[in-house]
Write a structure and sequence with these properties.
The complex is a heterotrimer of chains A (about 325), B (about 375) and C (about 300).
Chain A lengths: L1 H6 L14 H42 L2 H4 L6 E2 L5 E3 L5 H32 L2 H16 L2 H28 L3 H6 L8 H25 L3 H9 L4 H30 L2 H6 L17 H8 L5 H38 L2
Antiparallel strand pairs in A: 1-2
Helix pairs in contact in A: 2-13, 4-8, 4-10, 5-8, 6-8, 8-10, 9-10, 10-13, 12-13
Chain B lengths: L4 H21 L5 E2 L13 E7 L4 H14 L3 E7 L2 H9 L5 E4 L15 E15 L8 E2 L1 H9 L8 H6 L11 E5 L4 H13 L19 E3 L1 H11 L3 E6 H6 L3 E2 L1 E3 L5 E2 L3 H9 L23 E9 L1 E2 L2 H15 L1 H5 L10 H10 L4 E2 L11
Parallel strand pairs in B: 2-3, 2-4, 6-11, 7-8, 7-9, 14-15
Antiparallel strand pairs in B: 4-13, 5-9, 5-10, 5-13, 11-12
Chain C lengths: L9 H5 L4 H38 L4 H5 L12 E4 L2 E4 L3 H33 L3 H14 L3 H16 L4 H26 L2 H9 L4 H29 L3 H6 L18 H9 L4 H35 L3
Antiparallel strand pairs in C: 1-2
Helix pairs in contact in C: 2-12, 4-5, 4-7, 4-9, 4-11, 5-7, 6-7, 7-9, 8-9, 9-12, 11-12
Classes of the chains: A mainly alpha (about 325), B alpha/beta (about 375), C mainly alpha (about 300).
Chain lengths: ~325, ~375, ~300
């Protein structure tokens, strides 16, 4: 291809006064096309914010502050049919979302850090690629398959044989008893457990990259000073990776909060402010999936509003994650 | 062979094409007809959307399948969401037909976009299903039912239940009422029975939604109620026959007007239908009917369609679908746990099919009174 | 670069001054680290094992190629109704997944690749490019259910129809930021001297990109796109609101409602009947095979790049 250009350089001369050579039009169009493609992201993001806010407005208008902070989601009527509590308060759902995500993080973060350390520090070279591949396989399994597995395999044994006995055994102890309360297979714990498995790959992946960028000079210095491998990790790798790990955890949190299908099948569908791990609960995403298709009027507006709240929360968390990783990067670059 | 982007893309395309061809070569609507193949022309095409009562859902889904063999180009979907939901959808013209176990209330007539017709399709017993380990047979009189569902009878070993069941040991378990949380024709028919036979224990009236006692459990659709009863020991609720059987629930024998305790069955339901008076718009009420061997909570159901349809295709599709329900559907209703309608009712219903016309055309046929 | 400032060994050694204590701690830590990898293998093996075992007994030629779908959840896929024995399968869902995901790929990949080209080749470190990168990152974090609500509001409410196209658009929006990001990364890896050489020889920027940079980055871009496809095929939540439901195969994404393997898995998993759950396992197995196939091809392509680059 290059021979043509060399033998006829005048074809591409941009200053020819006789008119533009054909290549130029294509060049301009190409640039415009790529620009337009990139702008699509802006358009979509603006669209999401505008349309969902707009559709959710009736909910905000009708319930005011109680829409987000109210704790009663399901409307209640008394025996005469009068409305006692109009419901549609997202508070219990926000709690459920945060609670299941917290359970997922508590279970997933130590394991993910462990796997990341395994890959970067302990595993022999030939083992690294297969291990990473296996973890990435976990990321490819669709959420609905995890949900099906939970429903068909986990719910009955957990609910009947594991949660009940634990709850009974710890019932008398003041704080633990309240925490380990309940006996429902579909509960915060079951949903949190499956969520933990689902967010492990992404936390592992980010943590692994951060660990891998630890300057080897740092690690070798520690080892040269006589540190054991664990001491080297604690002394050289962890301090270097702190910002990145925080970012990874926050990204994992964002993922857990937005997860819908596995949760709607496993969390039980009862909106409440309970702390019992083995009790049924509900999250924002699950409430949307459960009721959206049959909803009308204010309830539909409320469900879209839940989407807005969820979107804003995950947005803030993702921005926080970028800030955390950016901050540690800046610190390293400044050599502090 | 050296891999590069081009070869990778080619392989992906080839794989997908093979996959598509393979699946396309699979037959659409493969049918293994047990008896002789139907010879009716498969002339109908398009889609029909319906929604509404969950009571006849198992019948309609089976009928959709069977009708789909005769008319593979016509796609019918029916979404069970309760009689109230179906009526609302028809009002908003979101569906072509609505299923309802409860007639439209007078004050709702204006919400509809025009005149509509009732087509009775099937009937079935509403079972009183319960979850009481150790008790496999239960008899309940109307008054006892009124007390249980009205909230005045709170434990299973109550004197009223014991009086209906001499010789049966009843546990102390608390009674948990399970009812419909959505707008339901099954609720309407069940509460109609309670209003007629529930005695002084029943004060909550009747309708698609009523104010159930405190502490009761609500569930959506008949299948939801069935699941809720199954999940809670001591639960009792009202479920259509087909759903109760599919979920493996035990149900009670209910006392009819003659004083007999009758188990829910299709024969007992047909007996209830036999004596019911039919109005000119094909509404009828078989609940708490007279006669020996009658099951007192026999519930009817109808399909509602607008008299005037936007085009001839819609008219043909609806007529074809309804005619199927009123002919072949009747022959096989019992195989899916529904009772067929008595012949006199069917004749009137089939005659009413001619009343479905294209908007603008005059209704030419004489309607059977 | 100061090295020692981040090295803080004293606290870790201080509490267990004896050599044996330190070695013990090191050993325990090693066990915990290796153990965490084993711990995560258990759910992976369990899920894949169950899907293979339960799904394999359900998936057969009839399952994959027969239409319509059994709309009575308590009945098996060969069942009698009204005196006829009818066969059912999941063909509508298989075709639905292929059509909807395929259309989403056709929408997302060209736009995503072009967007990535803009960011890396034209945008560079400019303000606009930084803003766009920020929004692209935000878009990756949008929960899929929120994307479904957005597409429902904008498309379904306006056209008063649920179609495969609406589902494809929702999936495309989910895939788009991923493709943009991975394209940008792959393009960044192409050495600058190749670009400069091409420009020096008189080729314009567009030509340089199309003929030199893109082919060099293509395997990576394809691999990134395949991973996005694998993820999109498994998406359920947004489709629940926008593609409707059908039991018959619908080849046309522009008209009529459709269904996919993911939606069918979800709907059947929520049923109390074992026949429905069996169907869910079958649909899940088919779905996993598609997703894994795309992932494995992507992995092979990536490995070939790395092998060629001499890593």
């Amino acid at each position: 291809m290059t021979t043509d250009a060399i033998s006829t350089p005048t074809n591409q001369a941009p200053l020819s006064p006789e008119g533009r050579p054909p290549g130029r039009v294509f060049d301009q169009l190409f640039r415009i096309a790529t620009f337009a493609a990139a702008i699509v992201v802006l358009v979509v993001m603006a669209g999401i914010l505008l349309t969902t806010f707009n559709e959710a407005r009736p909910w905000f208008q009708e319930r005011g502050l109680a829409s987000i902070f109210g704790t009663q989601w399901v409307p209640i009527s008394d025996n005469a049919g009068n409305v006692v509590d109009p419901g549609l308060g997202a508070g219990a759902l926000i709690w459920g979302t945060l609670y299941t995500s917290a359970i997922a993080l508590v279970l997933a973060v130590p394991v993910s850090i462990g796997i990341a350390l395994f890959v970067t520090e302990i595993a022999p070279g030939w083992l690294r690629r297969p291990v990473v591949f296996v973890i990435d396989l976990l990321a490819v399994v669709p959420s609905v398959v995890f949900g099906l597995f939970g429903v068909a395999v986990l719910v009955s044994p957990l609910g009947n044989d594991i949660y009940g006995p634990i709850s009974d055994a710890l019932a008398a102890i003041p704080l633990l008893g309240a925490l380990f309360h309940g006996s429902s297979g579909r509960s915060y714990m079951t949903a949190g457990l499956v969520l933990a498995v689902m967010i492990t790959p992404i936390i592992t992946s980010i943590t692994r990259e951060v660990f891998a960028t630890t300057p080897s000079a740092l690690k070798e210095a520690a080892l040269a000073l006589g540190a054991t491998r664990w001491e080297m990790i604690r002394g050289a790798v962890f301090p270097h990776a702190r910002g990145g790990v925080v970012a990874a955890v926050m990204i994992g949190l964002g993922r857990a909060m937005g997860e819908t299908i596995a949760v709607v099948l496993l969390v039980g569908g009862a909106a409440n402010l309970g702390v019992g791990l083995f009790e049924s609960g509900e999250t924002m995403a699950a409430a949307i999936a459960r009721s959206f298709n049959e909803s009308t009027g204010v309830q539909r507006s409320a469900l879209i509003g839940l989407g807005v709240v969820l979107f804003v929360m995950t947005l803030l968390i993702n921005m926080g994650a970028r800030w955390a990783s950016g901050r540690s990067e800046r610190r390293l670059r400044a050599g502090r | 062979m050296r891999w590069n982007a081009g070869r990778a893309k080619l392989l992906a395309v080839v794989m997908m094409t093979f996959g598509l061809i393979a699946t396309a070569c699979g037959s659409d609507d493969t049918v293994d007809l047990g008896s002789g193949a139907t010879s009716a022309e498969a002339s109908l095409s398009g889609t029909l959307k319906g929604s509404g009562a969950s009571f006849p859902d198992k019948f309609y889904q089976a009928a959709i399948q069977a009708f789909g063999q005769a008319q593979p180009n016509l796609t019918i979907t029916y979404e069970a969401k309760g009689s109230g939901g179906g009526q609302t959808d028809l009002q908003g013209q979101l569906v072509d037909f609505a299923g309802s176990d409860d007639p439209v209330k007078d004050e709702d007539f204006d919400k509809f976009a025009g005149e509509f017709l009732y087509f009775p399709t099937v009937a079935a017993p509403i079972t009183v299903a319960y979850n009481l380990p150790g008790v496999s047979e239960l008899k309940l009189s109307g008054a006892t039912l009124g007390g249980i569902f009205g909230g005045s009878i709170t434990t299973w070993n109550d004197a009223a239940i014991a009086a209906d069941n001499p010789g049966v040991t009843l546990p102390e378990t608390k009674v948990t009422i399970v009812h419909r949380s959505d707008s339901s024709g099954t609720t309407a028919n069940f509460t109609k029975f309670l209003a007629a036979a529930g005695g002084r224990g029943w004060t909550l009236g009747s309708g698609k939604t009523i104010a159930w006692p405190n502490g009761s459990t609500g569930a959506e659709k008949n299948s939801g109620v069935a699941n809720a009863i199954k999940a809670a020991s001591g639960a009792i609720g009202y479920v259509d026959f087909a759903d109760a059987k599919a979920s493996g629930l035990t149900f009670a024998a209910i006392q009819n007007k003659e004083g007999e305790f009758v188990e829910p069955s299709l024969e007992a339901t047909s007996l209830a239908l036999a004596g019911a008076a039919v109005e000119s718009n094909l509404l009828y009420n078989p609940v708490n009917a007279n006669g020996k061997g009658v099951y007192p909570i026999a519930a009817p159901t109808w399909i509602l369609v607008y008299k005037q349809q936007p085009d001839q295709k819609a008219v043909d599709n609806l007529k074809g679908w309804l005619e199927f329900l009123l002919t072949t559907g009747q022959e096989s209703a019992e195989t899916v746990d529904f009772a067929p309608l008595p012949e006199r009712l069917l004749t009137k219903a089939r005659a009413q099919l001619d009343d479905i016309v294209v908007t603008g055309a005059s209704s030419t046929t004489t309607t059977v009174g | 670069m100061t090295v020692t400032s981040n090295l803080s060994l004293t606290p870790s050694i201080g509490r267990f001054p004896t050599r044996r204590g330190r070695l013990l701690r090191d050993r325990l830590a090693t066990i915990a680290i290796v153990g965490s990898f084993i711990v995560v293998l258990i759910p992976l093996a369990a899920v894949i094992g169950y899907v293979l075992a339960k799904g394999a007994s359900v998936v057969d030629w009839q399952f994959l190629t027969t239409s319509p779908i059994q709309n009575r959840p308590d009945q098996p896929d060969t069942a009698e109704v009204f005196g006829q024995v009818l066969k059912f399968g999941m063909q509508p869902a298989v075709i639905g997944t292929l059509v909807v995901t395929g259309l989403a790929t056709l929408l997302a990949v060209p736009v995503g690749v072009f967007g990535g080209i803009y960011l890396n080749e034209y945008g560079g470190r400019g303000t606009l490019a930084t803003v766009l990168r920020f929004f692209t990152d935000c878009m990756t974090g949008v929960p899929s259910v929120v994307m479904g609500l957005f597409v429902f509001t904008v498309i379904v409410l306006n056209t008063q129809e649920r179609t495969g196209l609406a589902g494809a658009i929702a999936l495309a929006f989910l895939m788009l930021p991923v493709v943009i990001r991975s394209t940008e990364e792959m393009l960044r890896l192409v050495p600058n001297d190749q670009r400069e050489a091409s420009l020096a020889l008189g080729c314009r920027k567009a030509g340089t990109i199309m003929r030199i940079v893109l082919p060099a980055a293509a395997p990576g871009i394809v691999s990134g796109a395949l991973l996005a496809v694998a993820r999109a095929a498994g998406e359920t939540a947004p489709l629940l609101f926008v593609i409707g439901i059908t039991y018959r195969t619908n080849w046309n994404p522009f008209a009529g409602e459709t269904t996919t393997l993911s939606v069918q898995t979800y709907m059947n998993a929520a049923q109390p009947y074992s026949t429905a759950v069996d169907r869910a396992w079958g649909a899940a197995l088919t779905l996993i095979v598609i997703a894994f196939a795309a992932t494995i091809v992507a992995r092979i392509v990536t490995n070939r790049i790395q092998a060629r680059a001499g890593k």
